[in-house]
Amino acid sequence: MLHPFIPFVTESINIQFNKIGNKEFSDLLIIAEWPRVDKKMINTQVEKEFEKIKNLVTEIRKWRKEEKIEHKEIILLPDIFKNEILKLETKSQEIVKQLAKIK
């Protein structure tokens, strides 16, 4: 998406990614085909967990706005969200805490 604005930079990044991935570099980014989806790489469990994280962070941010609490202010986890956050995996809980600015 940045290619029309900074073509030399995006071409350089494309070349570097291809070197890292041990791929044969043949096409310029501007004329290359769009990548194809590798169905084996899709993990529905991870996608579901991401949706839970996204929805919970959205709800907490909405609650903060309704309560007129500054987004930059770190607050204790409100009781109304405790059950929801405990349903998430530990790593996901940390992501929610970071994005929603809660402890």
Number of helices: 4
Helix content: 40-55%
Order of helices and strands: HHHH
Number of domains: 2
- Alpha-carbon distance between the two ends: 36 Å
Q: Tell me the overall shape.
A: elongated
Taking pLDDT < 50 over at least 5 consecutive residues as the criterion, the unreliable ranges are none
Beta percentage is under 5%
Using the CA coordinates, give the radius of gyration: 20 Å
Number of strands: 0
Largest sheet properties: none
Overview of this structure, please?
This protein has 103 residues and is an all-alpha fold. The protein folds into 2 domains: 7-35; 41-100. 54% of the residues lie in helices and 0% in strands. It has 4 helices and no strands. The chain has helices at residues 7-20, 44-66, 79-86, 90-100. Helix 2 (44-66) runs parallel beside helix 4 (90-100). The longest helix is centred in the middle third of the chain and has 23 residues, at 44-66. The chain is elongated and about 55 Å long. It starts with 6 loop residues before the first helix and ends with a helix. The model has no long low-confidence stretch (mean pLDDT 86).
What would a concise description of this structure say?
The chain contains 4 helices and no strands. It has helices at 7-20, 44-66, 79-86, 90-100.
What tags apply to this protein structure?
single chain; 103 residues; 2 domains
Secondary-structure blueprint:
Layout: H1 7-20, H2 44-66, H3 79-86, H4 90-100
Helix pairs in contact: 2-4
